[in-house]
Specification:
Length: about 160
């Protein structure tokens, strides 16, 4: 690299984007080293002045905090441990209550009635809506196989 670093290259250098050619040039060129050092010093001074200004603004709105007694930090830890234990006990009690409840006699009777109704519905051969039709036709196993085909073919032809 024959020329000095451009302002763009200096900005990239400060941001951490350092190309090999620029690094070699900065090592060899004392003028570019001085310019980079001056730029870094300016940034550090700017940062410190911004921090001082912001601390002054904060102290105007928020009074300084009272420092805690460093002799008893174990009390804070003990307080947190107690709070966690109490929380665990409370959650444990809630989970015991939300578990399966004991069935009462009324619930057991209702369950038994429901199961009886389901058993009745499943074991029926014809649904309730078709019950009147079963009285019109006789359901004899021997006649249904022998005449079932004839009735079916007669109804198709008509």
């Amino acid at each position: 690299m024959s020329t000095h670093l451009t302002p763009q290259q200096i900005s990239e250098w400060i941001l951490g984007d350092r190309r090999r050619e620029a690094e070699l040039h900065v090592r060899a060129c004392s003028l570019c080293q001085a310019e980079l050092n001056q730029f870094e010093i300016s940034l550090k001074e700017f940062r410190s002045s911004v921090r001082q200004w912001s601390e002054g603004q904060l102290s105007a709105y928020f009074p300084p905090q009272v420092k805690r007694n460093p002799a008893r930090p174990w009390m804070v830890g003990l307080g947190w441990a107690m709070a966690i234990i109490i929380l665990c006990l409370f959650v444990g009690r809630l989970s015991d209550r939300s578990g399966p409840q004991l069935q009462t006699a009324a619930t057991t009777a209702a369950d038994a009635a429901l199961l009886t109704q389901i058993d009745y519905e499943v074991s029926r051969t014809v649904p309730d809506s078709m019950q009147p039709l079963t009285q019109l036709v006789s359901w004899d196993a021997s006649s249904s196989t022998s005449t079932g085909g004839a009735h079916a073919s007669e109804s198709r032809t008509q």
